[in-house]
Amino acid sequence: EEPKDACLAADEESCEVVHNDVNDSDEIVPKAFITMPSSDVVEISQSFYWPLYTRPIDWIYQCHLLEENDEAEAMVRRVAEELQALEFRQASSFAQDDDGSDGNATETFDPLEASVISVMEELTDVKEDWFNDLSGGQKSKVELVRKVFLHDKCPSVLLIDETMAPLDPNSKSIVMEKLKRFCADSVVIVIYHTDVRENEDGETIDCVPSNDFFDENIHLVNHTLVHRPVC
Question: Angle at CA 229, nearest 5°, toward 29 and 226?
């Protein structure tokens, strides 16, 4: 089986048989259980479901925002701002008019605000298949906002299954920094493919880079979970 890494645990009894791929220096870690479904556990999977012919904002909130009032507008704006905080749309792509203004000479043009307003409009339009038009990274950002950042606090346990894989390096850094702040008191478990690097002795090793985000690395190979350092 292809090795993967996660901050996950299993007990010594279930890991009695240590396979050849497990190094002598690896530490087999004790057991822990995660029961799902649970209000304390949220999972963001590799496969995203999105309904057809719906307004994105209705699916994100899991309700129909029918009334056009200040409260509904504030809810839409919050989603747009959370998405733009993760660089869902590039603010630099929202330019001024050709005459050098945004159509209102009395106000200073703000590309970030323009991008938020544009995303708000996008969220409230009925789409045949909105998710299909998004990139893999944009889909990941929508799910992170929908399941994590729209809530008052991070879930006690957050399972992230390869959600960061489609993100470009800059977006991945932004997402990691936001998760680190927002989920400081939670357990965040990320399924993450290893990087191939050389150690001090010039040997090729598989490792998970810390990126100032990962604290621990639990390596999974042949149904065995072992603790390895981050690099």
Answer: 25
CA 139, distance to chain mean position in Å, is: 9
Q: What pLDDT was estimated at residue 46? A: 81
Q: Looking at the whole model, is its pTM more than 0.85?
A: no
What is the rounded distance in angstroms from the CA atom of residue 120 to the CA atom of residue 125?
Answer: 9
Cα gap 8→99, rounded to integer Å: 57
**How many angstroms separate the CA atoms of 48 and 142, rounded?**
10
3-state secondary structure of 190: strand
Q: Which residues contact 120 (CB under 8 A, 6 or more apart)?
A: 73, 76, 77, 80
With a cut of 70, which residues of the chain have pLDDT below it?
1-33, 92-107
Query: How confident is the model at residue 35, as a pLDDT?
Result: 75
Beta pairing, strands 157-161 & 41-44: parallel
Q: Is 207 helix (H, G, I), strand (E, B) or coil?
A: strand
pLDDT at res. 105: 47
What is the DSSP-derived secondary structure letter of residue 99? T
Q: Which residues contact 31 (CB under 8 A, 6 or more apart)?
A: 9, 10, 11, 12, 13, 14
- Give the 3-state secondary structure of residue 80: helix
